[in-house]
Each structure stands twice: as structure tokens, then as C-alpha cells.
Specification:
Layout: E1 2-4, H1 7-20, E2 24-29, H2 35-47, E3 50-55, H3 75-84, E4 89-91, H4 95-98, H5 117-120, H6 124-139, E5 143-147, H7 151-163, E6 169-173, H8 193-198, H9 200-214, H10 220-232, E7 237-245, E8 260-268, E9 271-279
Parallel strand pairs: 1-4, 2-3, 2-5, 3-4, 5-6
Antiparallel strand pairs: 7-8, 8-9
Helix pairs in contact: 6-7, 9-10
The protein binds pantoate (PAF).
């Protein structure tokens, strides 16, 4: 695996990979890799001839009161995992490489960036779309792989790719869960034992919504209120949002008549977790 710390090194390695082989896949990450990330790498290995992974804890997508400094960093372990998966290129730049002093240019997907997680994390998606567009310019992948767990992020990135004509196919990969149903996340590492068990309420709330949907309920407000009752049963968990939205525009729907995203975000202690499912009538 070629480890590149600078943009010229990464460009050269990716250019070589694209010329000698055919399709280049990119898996953008912030490190602290888990099975969810590795499932993206595996999907990329199937679909592409060479795979590049980026590890960059992107400061611009963290708010001033968020967990940037304590975000888990496990670079050596991550490298070993990626080597084992047969990744060809790892791009792991320093912050100054990506954001030289005086940079004032941002990529913003207006409208979508203020919905769901963007509402509770102002500026978050501006940071995400700026770093992802930089990565697309540097790596020039044919395909880029993202987890369905970050469903709002996926919608924002898809819209950016469409609006700015990036020649990249966005591939969404299914949520990977722990055996008890908790969606895998680097932030799960913050949870103590009690919080870890309380965190399962997100999954229970989503399942409640699914059960009611499977029983024929189509009114979003009814599903939301049933799910919120489940969350309220875990008083140590503070709900951020439980919403039922159009998966592309992220606008709330009243009645579920087509493919619909059910998303939840909640604080378990100080850790903000998200999860979602898709309903299809
Ligand atoms: O999903 C993530 O890990 C990050 O938001 C991403 C896409 C790597 C951008 O920093």
C-alpha cells in the first residue's frame, strides 16, 4: 500500500493506478476504521480495479463545541487493516496540506445542508462537501463509496456531484450493525457500558416505526409519535430529531407513498449517534 501524505504524491499514485488499470475507487474516511468502513473498501474492491482510501479528520466539519480534539485517531491500526484488505493507495494528509493558511473557498449545497444533521450541526455539511470535493479533485476517482448510515450526508454529496458535474459515481453501501443491532460508528468508542446499552433505543425506535408501517400505517406523524414514545422510555437519551423525509430532498413527508427515509439522531450521554432505515411501500 502506498501511503501518501502530500497532494502531489497522491495525485501521482492515483494517476499511475488509473493508467495502469482501469477503474479507481475512493473510500473517504476520518479513520478509526471499523467493519462499516471495511465494508465500503470491500465493495470498492469488487467494483474497481484499484482502491484509494483517505484518512483525514476534517476540522471544518466539526462545530466549535464538538469532539474534534478527542475524535479517535488510530493511524497504525488503520494502516494494518487497509493493508489486509489489499488497498493500493492511502491518502493521509495533515490539516495544513488540505487547508493552506488563507483558504476562503467553500462548497455549499444550499438548502439541503441545513436539514436533519445540518440543522443541529450548523456548518457541518459545508465542511463535508468542501473536503469531499477536494478529495474528488485530488484522487479523481471513478466511483466513491459512502455508508448509508450517514443518509443526509449521502443526499448532500449526491446533489453536489449532480450540480457541479463531478465525473464520479456515488455508491451507497448498507449500514453495518453490531450483532445486537447498534449501527457501527467510530463514535461508539465513546460509550461506556451503560450508554452502549441505552444506545440500542435508536434501533428500537426505528423498528417501532417499521412495525407500524408493515401493519399498514402510512401517516408519517403517527410513525414519528410511536417512535418518539420509545425514545422517551430511555430518559438518559436526548432526542435530536426523528424525521420521515424524502431521501433526496430531505423534506418531511406527510404520507409515505414512495421510497422514504426514516432518520434518527440522539445524544447518549454526550455522544451524538445517528441511524436510519428506508421504507418502501
Ligand atoms: O463520513 C465521513 O467519515 C466524513 O464525513 C467524510 C465523508 C470522510 C468527510 O470527511
Amino acid at each position: 500500500m502506498k501511503v501518501c501524505a502530500t497532494i502531489p504524491e497522491a495525485r501521482a499514485a492515483c494517476c499511475d493506478a488509473r493508467t495502469s488499470r482501469k477503474r479507481l475507487g475512493l473510500v473517504p474516511t476520518m479513520g478509526a476504521l471499523h467493519e462499516g468502513h471495511l465494508s465500503l473498501v470491500r465493495a470498492a474492491k469488487v467494483q474497481c480495479d484499484a482502491v484509494a482510501v483517505s484518512i483525514f479528520v476534517n476540522p471544518t466539519q466539526f462545530g466549535p463545541a464538538e469532539d474534534l480534539s478527542k475524535y479517535p485517531r488510530q493511524f497504525d491500526r488503520d494502516c494494518r487493516l487497509l493493508e489486509k484488505e489489499g488497498v493500493e493507495i492511502l491518502f493521509a494528509p495533515a490539516v495544513e496540506e488540505i487547508y493552506p493558511g488563507g483558504a476562503v473557498t467553500w462548497v455549499v449545497v444550499e438548502g439541503l445542508s441545513e436539514k436533519l444533521d445540518g440543522r443541529s450541526r450548523p456548518g457541518h455539511f459545508r465542511g463535508v462537501t468542501t473536503i469531499v470535493s477536494k478529495l474528488f479533485h485530488i484522487i479523481e476517482p471513478d466511483d466513491a463509496f459512502f455508508g448509508q448510515k450517514d443518509a443526509a450526508q449521502l443526499a448532500v454529496i449526491r446533489r453536489m456531484v449532480r450540480d457541479l458535474n463531478f465525473p464520479v459515481e456515488i455508491v451507497a453501501c448498507p449500514i453495518v450493525r453490531e450483532p445486537d443491532g447498534l449501527a457501527m460508528s467510530s463514535r461508539n468508542a465513546y460509550l461506556n457500558r451503560e450508554e452502549r446499552s441505552r444506545a440500542l433505543v435508536l434501533q428500537r425506535a426505528l423498528q417501532k416505526a417499521r412495525q407500524q408501517f408493515d401493519a399498514g400505517e402510512r401517516i408519517a406523524a403517527k410513525l414519528i409519535s410511536a417512535a418518539k414514545e420509545v425514545i422517551a422510555g430511555e430518559p438518559q437519551v436526548a432526542l435530536d430529531y426523528f424525521e420521515i423525509v424524502d431521501p433526496d430532498m430531505l423534506d418531511p413527508v406527510e404520507r409515505i407513498s414512495q421510497k422514504t427515509l426514516v432518520g434518527v439522531a440522539a445524544y447518549v450521554g454526550t455522544t451524538r449517534l445517528i441511524d436510519n432505515l428506508v421504507l418502501e411501500p
